[in-house]
Amino acid sequence: CNMENFDPLGVHTGDSMVIAPSQTLSNDEYHFLRDAALRVVRHLGIVGECNIQYALHPTSKEYAVIEVNPRLSRSSALASKATGYPLAFVAAKLAMGVHLPQLRNKVTGGATTACFEPALDYCVVKVPRWDLGKFQGAHRVLGSAMASVGEVMAIGRTFEEAFQKALRMVDPGFAGFEPRLGEELTDDDIRIPTDGRIWKIAQALYRGASGDSRWGVDAVHDLSKIDKWFLSRLFPIATASADENLWKQLSQAISSTNDISCPNLKEQFLRLKKLGFSDKQIATRCNATETAVRTTRLSLGVEPCVKQIDTLAGEFAAATNYLYTTYHGDEDDDDDDSARAHRGGRKMARGGVLVLGSGPYRIGSSVEFDWCAVSAMRALRAAGARGIMINCNPETVTTDYDV
């Protein structure tokens, strides 16, 4: 699994937003680094799990190996949950002398072996969580020493969809990629990496989308050195938010079921949902209630599809219920012909008991919450009930696909 940091070199991977698979590498760059990783692993004689972190020059093939971790780390947990590939399980088997071709891929029900590289037809975004606000006088500038205490993982078909999901998951107070109101904006706010820089970046891009020539993708890139690809994908979110005519039309349509002033209402709703906007975000901009927005959206038939993480980008049917939702799709994966054939023609069962996971890590509570959630799932299974786990923390057992 290949992943890349949102922030440039200088910020610890644990404190940076991380995207999988890598979005800004060319095919040549990807295989160049992949070959280098294989040479490193063979030279060191590593058997089992290993992750390698690189620094790659943005305009050349000059690179440096930042670190080689022949162990399971938070990055390993993220890679495993992002791909559905059970790294810890496979690494343990390799340490016992079992070879990769002998191991079967449980995600595909044993139809394939574990000797493959996962392929993703979706995008994963990890956003770290800090508890710096609990400590008076804490240093908020990010560097090579990790300060985050946990993270969330969001999945979508596009970067911007997953990105807004992740920002909402990491703290209930964040509606998505949007600026905090009433704050000043300086060059240092963009130049210096802090735990709150993403909201300053949102402020800058929103100003640029509103016509402020001082700010925009180029200005933020010049100050932060964040890759323009990421910024250019976030800019449409700011542009949509700044479109007053769009929100006026949507507001009129939501407030009156007989309103026809927005003939492309369904397309507009779908575009916003694909950009990662929640019903709450849309309601705030339309001066409406979240319930009214949801009612209008459902009446238009704008609903998310349920997709499976199958490790092989849909080439083989998945046997596990490791699922995510997206607005980039036409049908649920569990309802297509290949999925039904894999279950002997049976449709997936509906209903069940919902178990809410602990969410992002919080000092002093998450381990206990995780144990409670897993115990609840096991109790439901023992009672013959169908349990449905919802969680966004890749570090916990609750997001293991076989729980």
Q: Could you tell me the number of beta strands?
A: 10
Q: Describe the main β-sheet briefly.
A: 4 strands, antiparallel
**How much helix is in the residues?**
25-40%
Question: Which radius of gyration do the C-alpha atoms yield?
Answer: 22 Å
The residue ranges in which pLDDT falls below 50 over 5 or more consecutive positions are 338-346
Order of helices and strands: EEHEEHHEEHHHHHHHHHEEHEHE
Q: Which descriptor suits the 3D outline?
A: globular
Quote the beta fraction.
5-15%
Summarize the structure in words:
The structure is a single chain. With 403 residues, the chain is of the alpha+beta class. It has 14 helices and ten strands. It has helices at residues 27-44, 74-83, 87-95, 159-170, 187-191, 197-209, 217-224, 228-241, 244-255, 265-274, 279-286, 290-299, 337-342, 366-382, and strands spanning 4-5, 18-20, 51-56, 63-69, 123-129, 150-156, 305-308, 323-326, 353-356, 387-390. A four-stranded antiparallel β-sheet has the order 1-2-5-6. Strands 3-4 form a two-stranded antiparallel sheet. Helix 7 (217-224) packs across helix 8 and helix 11 crosses helix 12. The longest helix has 18 residues, at 27-44.
